[in-house]
Specification:
The chain is mainly β. The protein is built from four helices and 37 strands. The radius of gyration is 25 Å and the shape is globular.
């Protein structure tokens, strides 16, 4: 294989840094605990089961507003909530939040979602993924980190355009994983689990002081999970490290070094029988025996924060990503129900070599009722794409009981192109407390992206293109009392027509897709603080989506449009001692207003693909003494796998349960049962020939310890 010599050079070997950091922290872990703690950070955690309305939101705004005061829809899913539900993957926790459904595939790293009538296709073009407020570049829409929930204190989901905070590609929503922080209090926690088909997981986390002015956090996690399908094994491992320095009460430095290696299940879906799921093929896998899927990430960050005085705080963050991804698979399957054979095609070999170096500089100014944030973000992405296009190769196998064979293609796997992507953004956000009842939030952002693509094979043309856009947000919150807030919000943003890092010559002349949203809502605590509820109504419109020229349908142009509108409700309540009930429901209508496909066929009035119009989650928990029983259900309405709305994915309801024994304050034993009824259901359509199926019934026993 041909590998890229990266053009961004790091002064150290990133992979070794994470290991060296862990060893250094371990060697210093025995240092004496400081008598005093400088610059303490205190976060009041809301009681489990509510909507965490008083939690400061790191996702909805850079100004530090609480969820209650923010004129936008934000869900907070805590680590404790994910553990008691058995949601050990980030994406499982995300799909318990209001209106989010998983449409991920192996090709986009599995982190792709649909919400508010907008499906992030391909990958993350409309629903962004971030960690601690930093979004990293996604080549071909592929995001494969974070995967596991271990090492994170919570996940926040901001629904609707988040472009003022996160930039292009977030018109639908933004998901932000907030990692665990170092603490001056020495703590160790572990998690070990064994489950169906020999699956296992192990997590270890430690934090504590290092002398008078430093503290550390280390989280290590590994899994070996088997789906029960042929070739169903998936493995992953990661190391997350943070070193914090507080030399003075007004000054803080942090160094972060992470490494992850993920080998997901080599599964590209199950072929359909006349457009329907054939339940007898549920455990079959039509990939080849020597298939490969591998994601390797190294991430480094350095942060500095200086509280210059009572009204000015300066922050700077440098971040680095090195990502190596590889796919070698057979991806397309077509079932012949008459002969009970499966035709396999698209023998695909793809490699991504990506490096990103970026910086965010920010000033926070407080005074006279204002919380003002000014910032500048800059990053550079170097990317090489290697593949064997046009992905030749074909074979036919029986629909069950077959030799999977070996990967072979007549097309050579070669480096095809390099791309250099430079991004700049300037943003301003202000939260103005007009008085104790009224709050005005305003934001403005300017994004500029320049993509230069250099072809490595003859006969292809190099090009450069610059794309830019302005995003605005204006929201008003009214607080009649301490428990209630009502809000109105209008916002705009942009999505790319395809992934910017892998922009093609065919798409170079297209502008960004414009999105705008109007939203109104209410957030309220009731019953003396034992319950919370929120509701929102919204309308989102997107213009300039790709369509066909009405005069010449062979030409792709911009000019299509779509809209969605809906209502969302979420609640959490402790109605009686020992009981907690929480849930959410979404009802929406999404349609293309103007869309023409090949042959001049109009899809106006049709629903976008992979978009359900009804989604609901419900959980009940009952605790008595040292025991807690939990039962939950998730409903996802029907979806379509094509713009003609002829390929239907049926609705489904999946039930999960868990039983926990709190042996003592530091020990919990938990039994988790997922998909109680062993429901066969589809999560997303892959082309029009196959569906990705959800996990079958599985049980896991988990032990959690704290020291």
């Amino acid at each position: 294989m041909h590998r890229k010599t990266p053009s961004i050079r790091s002064p150290f070997a990133p992979r070794r840094v994470a290991c060296c950091t862990l060893l250094a922290l371990a060697s210093l872990a025995g240092a004496a605990r400081a008598d005093t703690q400088l610059a303490p950070v205190i976060v009041a955690a809301p009681e489990d089961g509510g909507l965490h309305l008083d939690q400061p939101s790191l996702t909805g705004s850079r100004t530090g507003l609480s969820v209650r005061d923010l004129p936008a829809s934000v869900d907070v899913v805590t680590a404790e909530a994910m553990r008691e539900r058995g949601d050990f993957n980030i994406k499982d926790g995300i799909t318990r939040s209001t209106g989010l459904t998983n449409i991920g595939t192996i090709g986009n790293g599995g982190m792709s979602f649909s919400t508010r009538g907008i499906a992030a296709t391909p990958g993350t073009t409309s629903v962004g993924i971030a960690e601690d407020g930093i979004s990293l570049g996604a080549a071909s829409g592929t995001i494969n980190y974070p995967v596991d929930a271990w090492g994170y204190q919570r996940v926040e989901v901001l629904r609707g355009p988040a472009s003022v905070v996160f930039g292009v590609g977030t018109v639908g929503a933004t998901i932000n994983a907030v990692r665990n922080e170092p603490s001056r209090e020495r703590k160790v926690e572990t998690l070990a689990g064994l489950g169906s088909y020999g699956s296992a997981r192990l997590g270890i986390g430690a934090t504590g002081p290092l002398g008078e002015h430093a503290s550390f956090r280390v989280d290590a996690y590994g899994t070996n999970i088997d789906s029960g399908r042929d070739m169903g094994e998936a493995k992953s491992g990661k190391l997350m490290t943070t070193l914090r320095l507080d030399p003075r009460a007004d000054l803080r430095f942090e160094l972060l070094a992470d490494y992850s290696l993920v080998r997901p299940e080599r599964y590209f879906g199950t072929p359909l029988a006349n457009g329907r799921i054939d339940r007898s093929l549920r455990d079959e896998n039509y990939n080849v025996g020597n298939s490969v899927i591998r994601y390797e990430d190294t991430r480094l960050r350095a942060r500095a924060e200086w509280r210059a005085n009572s009204w000015l705080t300066l922050r700077d963050e440098v971040f680095f990503l090195q990502a190596d991804r590889r796919w070698r698979n057979v991806e397309v399957y077509a079932l012949n129900p008459a002969t009970r054979t499966v035709a396999r095609s698209s023998y695909t070999s793809i490699e991504h070599d990506q490096e990103q170096l970026g910086n965010r500089l920010e000033a926070a100014i407080a005074g006279a009722g204002h919380r003002l944030v000014l910032g500048w973000e800059a990053s550079k992405i170097d990317f090489r794409h290697t593949n064997n296009a046009p992905y030749g190769g074909a074979s036919t196998v029986p629909d069950r009981g077959f030799d999977p064979g070996q990967w072979a293609s007549p097309n050579a796997t070669l480096p095809r192109y390099d791309s250099d992507t430079t991004m700049h953004a300037f943003y301003l956000e202000d939260a103005y407390e007009i008085d104790r009842h009224w709050l005005l939030l305003a934001g403005l952002r300017r994004d500029t992206t320049r993509v230069s693509r250099h072809e490595l094979l003859p006969g292809q043309a190099d090009f450069s293109e610059t794309l830019s856009g302005n995003s605005v947000r204006l929201g008003l919150t009214y607080r009649p009392n301490a428990d209630t807030s009502l809000y109105l919000q209008g916002s705009t943003g942009y999505d790319p027509v395809s992934n910017l890092v892998t922009l093609t010559l065919a798409n170079r002349d297209f502008s960004l897709v414009r999105g705008r949203q109007a939203e109104a809502g209410i957030k309220q605590s009731f019953a003396g603080g034992r319950g919370d509820w929120s509701a929102a109504v919204y309308r989102i419109e997107k213009d300039d989506i790709l369509t066909r020229d009405p005069v010449d349908p062979t030409i792709i142009v911009q000019g299509g449009s779509q809209h969605s509108q809906g209502v969302e409700l979420a609640f959490g309540i402790a109605p009686a001692p020992g009981w907690r009930v929480e849930g959410n429901v979404t009802a929406l209508r999404a349609r293309y207003d103007e869309l023409m496909e090949a042959g001049g066929i109009s899809r106006a009035g049709k629903r976008p693909t992979n978009v359900p119009e009804r989604v609901a989650n419900l959980w009940g928990h009952y605790r008595r003494g040292d025991w807690q029983a939990s039962l939950g259900a998730r409903y996802v309405g029907k979806r379509y796998g094509d713009n003609a709305n002829t390929l239907k994915m049926p609705s489904y309801t999946v039930a999960d349960a868990s039983l926990a024994w709190f042996v003592d304050r530091d020990t919990t034993l938990r039994a988790v049962l997922r998909n109680l009824t062993d429901k066969v259901y589809a999560t997303t359509a892959y082309r029009t020939t196959q569906f990705f199926l959800g996990e079958s019934r599985r049980m896991e026993l988990v032990a959690e310890f704290r020291f």
